[in-house]
Amino acid sequence: MNKNFERILNLIEELGSHKKTPITIQEYQSIINQSSALWMSNGVDEAFRFIRSYFNFIE
């Protein structure tokens, strides 16, 4: 597995585990898809920004 993709999955898992309300499998899949697309087009830092802003937005 690509190291950057692994880092993206780890960040999603870590931030998702701290939420009061669990997110669904579909939400995880959507976050993975969106962050992967950002990573491929704009780089891994852009994917990390998206993931952090997503989890800061939801409770």
Set down the secondary structure blueprint:
Elements: H1 3-17, H2 25-42, H3 44-57
Helix pairs in contact: 1-2, 1-3, 2-3
Short structural summary:
It is built from three helices and no strands. The protein is mainly alpha-helical and 59 residues long.
Features:
single chain, 59 residues, mainly alpha, 80% helix, globular
Describe the structure.
By secondary structure, this protein is mainly alpha-helical. The chain has helices at residues 3-17, 25-42, 44-57. α2 packs antiparallel against α3. It is globular, with a radius of gyration of 11 Å.
**What class, by secondary structure content?**
mainly alpha
- Which percent range fits the helix content? over 70%
**Mean pLDDT rating:** 90
What is the chains' assembly state?
Answer: single chain
Sketch the major β-sheet: none
Strand content: under 5%
Flag low-confidence runs.
none
**Spatial separation of the terminal alpha carbons:** 30 Å
Rg: 11 Å
Q: So what's the overall shape?
A: globular
User: How do the helices and strands follow one another from N- to C-terminus?
Assistant: HHH
Q: What is the number of beta strands?
A: 0
SS field, number of helical segments: 3
